[in-house]
Amino acid sequence: MTGCAFEKDLSLALHEGRWPAACDPALQAHVAACASCSDLALVTTTLQRARAAASQAPALPPPGVLWWRAQVRRRNTAAERMSRPIVFTEVVALAATLVALALASYRFFDWIDWTSLSGRFVAANFDITAAVATMPTWMLPTLAIAAVVFFAAAGFAVYSLAHNE
Amino acid sequence: MDDEAFAAFYQRTARPLWAYLARVSGNATLADDFLQESFVRFLSAATRPDGEVACRHYLFAIATNLMRDHWRRAPVAAIDDLPPAALPSTDGPDAAAIGDATLLSSAFARMKPRERQLLWLAHAEGHTHREIAKITGLASPSIRIMLFRARRKLARLLRQRVTREDA
After folding, report:
1. Which residue in A has a C-alpha nearest to residue B40's C-alpha?
2. What is the CA angle B82-B23-A63, rounded to 5?
3. How many structural domains is chain B composed of?
4. What gap in Å lies between CA A34 and CA A16, rounded to an integer?
5. What is the pLDDT of residues B63-109, one digit of tens each?
6. Which of the ends of chain B has fewer CB neighbours closer than 10 A, N or C?
7. Residues A97 and A145 grouped into a single domain
8. A39/B152 Cβ within 8 A
9. Domain extent at residue B132
10. What ipTM was estimated for this complex?
11. Alpha-carbon dihedral of residues B31, B37, B39, B40, nearest 10 degrees?
């Protein structure tokens, strides 16, 4: 099913360019009679001619361009590999910040007397300045610090997400 | 490999590689793209085999994988399942760009990419079955049978065309 005993000799002759002129007449006679070997001779000579023709056809890019592209790709790959731990650290830091903020907010909300705070606004007829004037001295800086921490953390989170994308 | 060694290697291998890509894909433009990508991947590889012959096989293997990936992205999963009509033809306008418009173009158009690949590597490039196995990732024993069938099919198609043209 997979060829005959002369296949090796014929194959060698074909690849060395000896077929058919420089070949033994006995081999030529065999190829004329053997279906498998005549297939081999026909296919190999056709493909060798096609290779010779196709190899002259294209205008190829200069090797320098490919060399440069490969260098750029290697550099990018190396940079990406190096920045991977940094990105990981950023994500962990962001997650830790958010958890800390959530815990602090929970504590802070528990600690503030919201009834008292809203009662002050109602008593001052929703006048913020008057309500603030009645607050204990510690409450306003605490609220201000909480707002600053919240907006800073939110800003950092947005920046980190945008930067990673 | 420094840039001078690469330039010399490129001069020796680029045209045969392009011919392989163009004949198997049946598309000169695709062959241009695959050629460039093959060399860039070859140069970007962390490790490359030693020696000219091994590098050449490695390069052909990269090109073969690129073609396989390209066909896999098509709606049909395996390239061997694709009907020849669904594949880029070597009988179209690209035939001139590939280098000839002979009987081979129309015969190749009726063959599967895998058959074209095996035939080209074995008979145009002169690779052994073991080398073809390395390049294509197929098992060496199955290559012998697949190649025998592909060769018989191509010979039949070539003879049919000749007979038809003579008639």
Report:
1. A70
2. 125
3. 1
4. 21
5. 999 998 888 876 544 555 555 544 444 444 444 444 444 678 888 88
6. C
7. yes
8. yes
9. 3-166
10. 0.75
11. 160
Burial of A125 (0-12, 13-18, 19+ CB in 10 A): exposed
Domain of A100, in residue numbers:
82-164
The answer as to whether A65 is a domain residue is no
Rounded Cα gap, residues A139 and A131, in angstroms: 12
Give the domain CATH number at B118: 1.20.140.160
Task: Say which residues have a Cβ less than 8 Å from residue B62's Cβ, sequence separation at least 6.
Answer: B38, B41, B42
Nearest to B18 among A2, A49, A60 (CB): A60
Choose from B23, B43, B121 for mutation: most chain A CBs within 10 A.
B43
Best residue in A40, A51, A72 for a mutation probing chain B (most B CBs within 10 Å): A51
The pLDDT-based confidence of A68 (bands split at 50, 70, 90) is very high
Give the span between the Cα atoms of B108 and B22, in whole angstroms: 12
